[in-house]
Amino acid sequence: MRVTRSIAEVRDEVRRWRRARKRIDFVPTMGAIHAGHQSLVRRACAEADRVVASIFVNPLQFGPGDDYRRYPRSPAADRELLARAGADLLWTPDVGHLLPEGHRTRVHVAELSEMLEGDSRPGHFDGVTTIVMQLLSVVQPDALWLGQKDAQQVRVIEQMVADLKLPTKVRRAPIVRQRDGLALSSRNAYLGPEERRQAVALSRGLAVARMMLRQGERSSARLVAAIRWVWREFPLVQEDYVAVVDARTLAKVGVVRRRVLVVVAARVGRARLIDNFEWGTP
Q: How far apart are CA 24 and CA 196, in angstroms?
């Protein structure tokens, strides 16, 4: 696996692959690589001739009081894990490469960026889309691979790609979980032993909601109440939001009639965790 910080070197390599008629897929990350990231790279490798991965801890998507300075960073281990997964090129730009002094442009996806995570973390998705747009501009991949755990982020990026007529297909990969159900996340590193035990509340609450849907429940209010009831047994879990939303518009729904996301966010100690599942047909 080749590693570079240089925008020019990435573009040169991509041009060389294009001349050889290679399909190129892309997996952007913020590092702290875990099995979820590796699954994205492996899926990309199964469909593409060449796979580019990136590591960039994006300061634009962290708000005041967020964890940018203490966000987990493990560059040597990250390189090894991405190489094992099969990435051909790892791009690790410096902040100054993507956000030099005088940088003014921001990419905003209206409405989708302003609810749920956007409501809890104002400006977060403008930071995400601004950097993802730059990454796509450099790599120009055939497909962009993202994880379902960040379902709202995927939906925002899908809309950006469609609206700006970018020639890249956005691909979603399923959530990768630990054996007890906890969704893999770089922020799980913040959890102490007891916090880690209680963090399973998110997936357990969602499991109850999924079971209720399978049994015919269609009231969003009752689904939300059931998740909160599960969380009562986990006092370290502090709710940010629990919601049932339309999978495309992300607007809250009262009754489940078509494809929805059941989404949750909570703080467990220093970690802010999110999880979700999708239900229904389009």
A: 37
Q: Which residues are catalytic?
A: 37
**Which residues neighbour 271 within 8 Å (Cβ) at sequence distance 6 or greater?**
185, 187, 188, 190, 191, 195, 199
Alpha carbons within 13 A on the beta-carbon side of 71: 21
pLDDT tens for residues 179-228?
999 999 999 999 999 999 999 999 999 999 999 999 999 999 999 999 99
User: What's the one-letter identity of residue 124?
Assistant: H
User: Using CB atoms within 10 A of its CB, is residue 46 exposed (0-12), middle (13-18) or buried (19+)?
Assistant: exposed
Contact residues for 162 (Cβ-Cβ < 8 A; gap 6+): none
Do the strands 89-91 and 260-268 form a parallel or antiparallel pair, or are they unpaired?
unpaired
pLDDT digits (tens, 9 = 90+) for 116-140: 999 999 999 999 999 999 999 999 9
Do residue 126 and residue 8 come from a single domain?
yes
Q: List, for residues 216-265, the tens digit of each pLDDT value.
A: 999 999 999 999 999 999 999 999 999 999 999 999 999 999 999 999 99
- Residue found under tokens 């959530």: 175
Closest to 147 (Cα-Cα) out of 224, 270, 44, 282 = 44
- Residue 216 sits in the same domain as residue 165: no
Residue 14 sits in a domain whose CATH number is 3.40.50.620
Task: Kindly give, in sequence order, each residue whose CB lies less than 8 Å from that of residue 238, ignoring residues fewer than 6 positions away.
Answer: 266, 267, 268
Q: Do residues 232 and 243 lie in contact, with contact meaning Cβ atoms separated by under 8 Å?
A: no
Output the pTM of the full model. 0.96
243 with 113, same domain: the answer is: no
